[in-house]
Amino acid sequence: MIQLTTIPALIATAPHLFLVPGGPGLSSMTLRTFDVLSRSFNLHYVDFPGTNGNPLSRNYLFRELADALTSEIKKMDGPKFILGHSYGGFHAVFVANQRSVDGVICLATPLSVDALGEV
User: Fold this and answer.
1) In what order do the strands lie in the sheet with 3-7?
2) Under a CB-based contact definition with an 8 Å cutoff, are residues 45 and 3 in contact?
3) What does the buried/exposed string (b/e) look like for 33-45 if buried means 16 or more CB atoms within 10 Å of the residue's CB?
4) 8 A C-beta contact, residue 1 and residue 68
5) φ/ψ bin of 45: left (φ > 0), alpha (ψ from -120 to 50), beta (otherwise)
6) CB 18 within 8 A of CB 44
7) In the 3-class helix/strand/coil scheme, how is 25-90 assigned residue by residue?
8) Neighbouring C-beta atoms of residue 27, cutoff 10 Å
9) How far apart are CA 80 and CA 14, in angstroms?
């Protein structure tokens, strides 16, 4: 369900950085200016169903997507970080609350009940 586009780091022992786009509906292509970070991180760009060629078979609930993302992240060994932009920040916080990453970065994410309501 979750599609990851991986850009390997220049350093063999580099940590993982998962980049979650805003949206819903925005693809990982909106974050590709972060490719420069592959100097220090294994980059994993996240595309949810219906974005960047990842087929949409049905509509998914936030929790289904967040659980699927958490599952993908748990498959990786080593230090892991997640960066969420805008709406993607809600997914990043969910994953961080599952203790699945070592750090979280939210960019332009309106973390308030008024922005999303109860998840």
Assistant:
1) 3-7, 42-47, 16-20, 80-85, 103-107
2) no
3) ebeebbeebbbbb
4) yes
5) beta
6) yes
7) CCCHHHHHHHHHHHHCCEEEEEECCCCCCCCCCCCCCHHHHHHHHHHHHHCCCCCEEEEEECCHHH
8) 20
9) 10
In the 8-state DSSP scheme, what is residue 14? P
List Cα–Cα distances, 66 to 12, 98, 110, 117, in angstroms.
28, 10, 17, 16
Residue 119 pLDDT exceeds 60: no
* Contacts (Cβ under 8 Å, ≥6 apart) of 113: none
| pLDDT tens track for 3-57 | 999 999 999 999 999 999 998 778 999 999 999 999 999 999 999 999 999 999 9
Give residue 71's pLDDT.
97
Place of tokens 């078979």: 57
Model confidence pLDDT, tens digit, residues 86-115: 999 999 999 999 999 999 999 988 877 776
